[in-house]
Design a protein that fits this description.
MdtP/NodT-like; membrane; 9 helices; signal; elongated; alpha+beta; 5 strands; lipoprotein
């Protein structure tokens, strides 16, 4: 009974143990009331309608939906991030909040001969069998919180790894969507160039007929030939860019580029409206911010682990079982038990190693705290950049659309004047080149506008709301 009371007292003492970790308080970062660049740019879509997870469905493209699904299932990048998360989760003792006893089963079977002249012997040698079976328990009393803080740190590391996985998943989703719309932008460029080559070809045929009739000069024919071949050369350049982009999508979705293809398709490059939400929500949505905060928490807990090394380690032992040289091993007379050994270990001199470990732990925390603040500031910068890009690209798109329309009308008028003999072909070439440039610039800015929406989603940590 005395042993049981002692064990209970020590257990209560362990439960009442203190923690050496400093009180955890994340560094404060001033959060604005609203995003500066959002002023004057409002989203038409209410936050309640924004998808919480499959944000790319806002674009309403079934093929993009399918590519995102393939990427989630087969991307090697995402698989590697998932494996890292599984490693961190396996290393964290999820089911415990503090120290737990270590229990070992112990068994032994031997045949021994002992000397008859051994101390206390009878003068006759003896040979006998020795069988034992039992269990041993070791329990470290966590008086200073070393084990509890280690558990907290491991769990926080696992949570940080989970946030890393979410960040990798969001980055993959954004990369697939970005590459897909770059591909569709190139499809639009290719279609524009095909129409342009057809129009330039007709203009070239016109100059050849006029030259054969003695109306146009050879210079006009060469000018028409130049713009025609330049347009054809651009078709090849766009085809090369498209092939590289298609191969990029194949890698993102975990497929071999040699067997992967996406059929060309011309479609309007329309960027859906996205709500930005409140700046305070950004800290909750961004997985990289969550990962930085959890690692900072883990570093704070490890300060407690390092400080606990200045105090003694107390361990309680308990063993019991059966031992016999013959007969029934499990008879009551063959049982044994023992309380102990109870041990206390305290390092007296280590040349400053423990002090240095505490200093290193504190420095690690300060580094991660600075990294956390930098991550938050970077997040706000990226959101402001994305909002500004969306607003300015909207204005640029409207102006570029007007410029393309005006350049198209100028090209038509110049060709008409040339047919009527009111101008030479230099005016036609200049107008045609300007029209093509303006139309290509319009497609480029429309593609940039869609990509800016994707960048905004990524900066916000997923769809707003």
């Amino acid at each position: 009974m005395a042993a049981e009371r002692a064990l209970a007292a020590l257990a209560m003492l362990a439960l009442a143990g203190c923690s050496m970790a400093p009180a955890y308080q994340p560094p404060s970062v001033a959060v604005p009331q609203g995003f500066k660049e959002a002023e004057g740019w409002t989203a038409a879509t209410p936050m309640d309608a924004a998808p919480r997870g499959e944000w790319w469905k806002l674009f309403g493209d079934p093929l993009l939906d399918d590519l995102e699904t393939q990427a989630a299932a087969a991307s090697p990048t995402l698989a590697a991030a998932l494996a890292r998360y599984d490693q961190a989760r396996a290393a964290a003792p999820h089911r415990t909040v503090g120290p737990v006893p270590q229990v070992d089963a112990v068994g032994d079977a031997s045949r021994q001969r002992v000397s008859g002249n051994r101390p206390g012997g009878t003068g006759r040698a003896s040979t006998y069998n020795d069988f034992s079976l039992g269990a041993a328990l070791d329990y470290e009393l966590d008086l200073w919180g070393r084990i509890r803080n280690s558990v907290k740190a491991a769990r926080a590391d696992a949570q940080a790894s989970e946030a890393d996985l979410a960040s990798a998943r969001l980055s993959l989703q954004a990369a697939v969507a970005d590459a897909y719309f770059r591909l569709r932008g190139l499809d639009a460029q290719a279609e524009l160039l095909r129409r342009t080559v057809d129009a330039f070809g007709k203009a070239y045929d016109l100059t050849v007929r006029r030259h054969d009739g003695g109306i146009a000069s050879g210079i006009d024919v060469n000018r028409a030939k130049t713009v025609l071949e330049n347009a054809r050369a651009q078709i090849s350049a766009v085809a090369n860019d498209r092939a590289a982009t298609e191969h990029e999508i194949a890698a993102l979705t975990g497929q071999v580029a040699s067997t992967f293809s996406i059929a060309p398709r011309t479609q309007p490059l329309v960027a859906p409206s996205l709500p930005t939400g409140a700046p305070s929500e950004l800290l909750q949505r961004r997985p990289d911010i969550a990962a930085a905060e959890r690692r900072m928490f883990a570093a704070n807990a490890r300060i407690g682990v390092a400080k606990a090394a200045f105090f003694p380690t107390l361990t309680l032992g308990l063993s019991g079982g059966y031992e016999a040289t013959r007969g029934d091993l499990f008879s009551a007379s063959n049982s044994f038990w023992g309380l102990g050994p109870a041990s206390a270990i305290l390092s007296i001199f280590d040349g400053g190693r423990r002090k240095a470990q505490v200093a290193m732990s504190r420095a690690d925390y300060e580094e991660l705290a600075a990294g956390y603040r930098d991550t938050v500031l970077t997040a706000f910068r990226q959101v402001e950049d994305a909002i500004a890009a969306n607003r300015h690209l909207a204005d640029q798109t409207a102006s570029q659309r007007n410029a393309a329309a005006a350049a198209g009308r100028t090209s038509d008028l110049a060709l008409t004047r040339y047919r009527d003999g009111a101008s030479d072909y230099l005016e036609v070439v200049t107008a045609q080149t300007d029209a093509l440039d303006a139309q290509q610039a319009l497609l480029a800015v429309e593609t940039q506008q869609v990509r800016a929406r994707i960048a905004l989603v990524r900066a916000l940590g997923g769809a707003a709301g």
